[in-house]
């Protein structure tokens, strides 16, 4: 039997000290992994953190292929991991950080059921985003339950300017640049074949995990391209067609 509290404590400590830990030896299922994630989050909230929203992972084929996994996953985004647009992220806080171009949605109503995700006003705004992921496992290697337990490698996020949500704008070109050089190019259409599905998928996984998605929360829809390592000192910028750009520097 997996000790949920013990695994959560090990992962929490790994994140706080920026020191990688070995993959758990025991096998456990996805439902148990989400309970570890919940406990991991409780430890953070007990220290005064708050939830900024939720995220999806492995929504694009490029990411699933890169990491050798087959399923979409759901994680929580703590407010303390925010990196303001145009500012610095302290790279010493991470183990082996990677960056991903994202679309971010602003949730406009309480989402308790999958049907709520389809109701008008479920999403009210969209922004270009960057996610910093940082697996707490050695060598960034994990099974699907391992990465779910580790809160889907969530480590930081940057949100660009919001625009009112326009469902007609869904298949948008995105560029990920490091120091002015394009390192990944893709399309938001790579996110679940249509990023508008992200809110429905998030609702499905949230309902399963017993989480209610609150108005005012953000939803990171998942990377549109494979992730790139984040070098120290790098200036990172994401440009999304129609949505604009967002950036930060790894200090
Ligand atoms: C898990 C997180 C994946 C995405 O957008 O696909 C993710 C990982 O690759 O470590 O956030």
TrEMBL record:
Top-rank EC class of the record's enzyme: lyase
Keyword terms: Lyase
Gene3D superfamilies tied to this protein: Fumarylacetoacetase-like, C-terminal domain
A Pfam family that the UniProt record links to this protein: FAA_hydrolase
InterPro entries, sorted: Fumarylacetoacetase-like_C (IPR011234), Fumarylacetoacetase_C_sf (IPR036663), Hydratase-Decarb/MhpD_sf (IPR050772)
GO CC terms: cytoplasm
Domain of life: Bacteria
Molecular function GO terms recorded: 2-oxopent-4-enoate hydratase activity; 4-oxalocrotonate decarboxylase activity
Chain segments annotated as transmembrane: none
Positions of the Fumarylacetoacetase-like C-terminal domain: 78-247
EC number: 4.1.1.77
Protein name: 2-oxo-3-hexenedioate decarboxylase
């Amino acid at each position: 039997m997996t000790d949920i509290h013990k695994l959560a404590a090990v992962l929490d400590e790994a994140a706080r000290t920026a020191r990688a830990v070995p993959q758990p030896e025991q096998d456990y299922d996805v439902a148990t992994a989400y309970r570890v994630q919940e406990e991991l989050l409780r430890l953070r909230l007990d220290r005064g953190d708050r939830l900024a929203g939720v995220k999806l992972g492995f929504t694009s084929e490029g990411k699933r292929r890169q990491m050798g996994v087959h399923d979409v996953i759901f994680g929580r985004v703590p407010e303390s991991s925010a990196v303001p647009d145009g500012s610095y992220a302290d790279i010493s806080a991470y183990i082996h950080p990677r960056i991903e171009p994202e679309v971010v949605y602003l949730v406009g109503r309480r989402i308790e059921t999958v049907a709520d995700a389809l109701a008008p006003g479920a999403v009210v705004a969209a922004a270009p985003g960057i996610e910093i992921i940082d697996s707490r496992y050695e060598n960034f290697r994990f099974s699907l339950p391992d990465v779910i337990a580790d809160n889907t490698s969530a480590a930081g996020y940057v949100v660009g300017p919001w625009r009112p949500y326009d469902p007609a704008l869904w298949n948008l070109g995105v560029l990920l640049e490091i120091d002015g050089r394009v390192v990944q190019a893709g399309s938001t259409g790579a996110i679940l074949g249509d990023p508008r599905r992200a809110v429905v998928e998030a609702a499905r996984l949230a309902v399963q995990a017993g989480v209610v998605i609150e108005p005012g929360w953000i939803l990171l829809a998942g990377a549109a391209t494979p992730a790139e390592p984040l070098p120290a000192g790098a200036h990172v910028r994401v440009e999304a067609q129609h949505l604009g750009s967002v950036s930060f520097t790894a200090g």
